Amino acid sequence: MQKFRIAVDMHGGDGGVCVLSKAVLSASQKLDESVSFTLCGAEAEIKAEFSKICADIVFNSERFSICDSKPQGNAINNISRLWRTAHDLSIIKCVLLQKDKKVCASFSAGDTGTLYSSALFLLGREAGIERAALAIAMPTISEKQTVLLDIGANAECSPRHLFHFGILGEKYYRKITKESKPKIGILNIGRETYKGTVAVREAAAMMKKEFGEQFFGFVEGNEIFDGKVDVIVCDGFCGNAILKTSESLYHFIQMKIQNLLPPEAIKKMQQFNSSSYGCAPILGLKGNVFKAHGNSSVEALSRAIIKAVESANI
């Protein structure tokens, strides 16, 4: 692997610097030495946390450096405009570093809206794409993964936005699986052509024209985990609801019946644990930006950082 530097928002997520310091250290021990880290956050706090877990780390070295910056805190008003004025926030700084070509990727478990708007306006969109989208590769019963997008960046979408998500999802699926002709579907409340919103029906017509035989058609909610469709397109409102419902269902099963299951079944069930998903890339940008779950554990964040590095290098 060529030299690769990733910027990490150290104030992102519920655990803040304490949890992210452990996650970065864990990821660095599993990744190749060619991967280096720029830690965006309060320098004194980062150094204090790292001194507790690994006194040997030398900052401002080839492997680790710190970009002194502030936590976002309660700065959540007008998040779509924060990127213009709040360049000292860690979540924005990690994107600015990529814009200035000082890092190859940006990673945060912080506020989705701030990360998305910063990435969109500082890095720019791919040519021909009107909206970028958050995507996640979800497990299925067929052992294949299904890419779901958007999962929270765009609550309301036009037919053209949904169509562009299909293009982004198809491209991403081919990239991560080497599948030459993935099946593309769009989430709906039924298979019939007359069902669904105007936006969904119009987007479906555009996808059918673009993808031909690759277009599966409408996908219902009870088919998401079948593995029959490789890419499922929906607006961010529905996508986020699907993702969080899946997470809560896993925890419900874990609490209610895990003790009744044999060890092999429990091991198999772990693939549906949201911590195993890694991170969600923002597709459609001129750059590599990754979002992790805000309440992720050290293990989940470490895995997400590794996934981000691997995804950016495919």
Written description of the protein model:
- Helix 1 packs across helix 2 and helix 4 runs parallel beside helix 5.
- The chain has an eleven-stranded mixed sheet with strand order 3-2-1-4-11-10-5-6-9-7-8, sandwiched between helices.
- The mean pLDDT is 89.
- The chain is globular.
- It is built from ten helices and eleven strands.
- It folds into two domains: 149 residues, Isopropylmalate Dehydrogenase (3-Layer(aba) Sandwich); 139 residues, Isopropylmalate Dehydrogenase, CATH 3.40.718.10.
- The protein is of the alpha/beta class.
- Helix 2 links the parallel strand 2 and strand 3.
- The longest helix has 22 residues.
Please describe the structure with a list of short key phrases separated by commas or semicolons.
single chain, about 325 residues, alpha/beta, Isopropylmalate Dehydrogenase, 2 domains, eleven-stranded mixed β-sheet
Q: Quick summary of this structure?
A:
The chain is α/β, with parallel strands linked by helices and 314 residues long.
Describe how the helices and strands are arranged.
Blueprint: E1 4-9, H1 16-30, E2 35-41, H2 43-53, E3 64-68, H3 82-85, H4 90-99, E4 105-108, H5 112-123, E5 133-139, E6 145-149, H6 159-177, E7 184-187, H7 198-211, E8 215-219, E9 231-233, H8 236-257, H9 263-269, E10 280-283, E11 289-291, H10 298-312
Parallel strand pairs: 1-2, 1-4, 2-3, 4-11, 6-9, 7-8, 7-9
Antiparallel strand pairs: 5-6, 5-10, 10-11
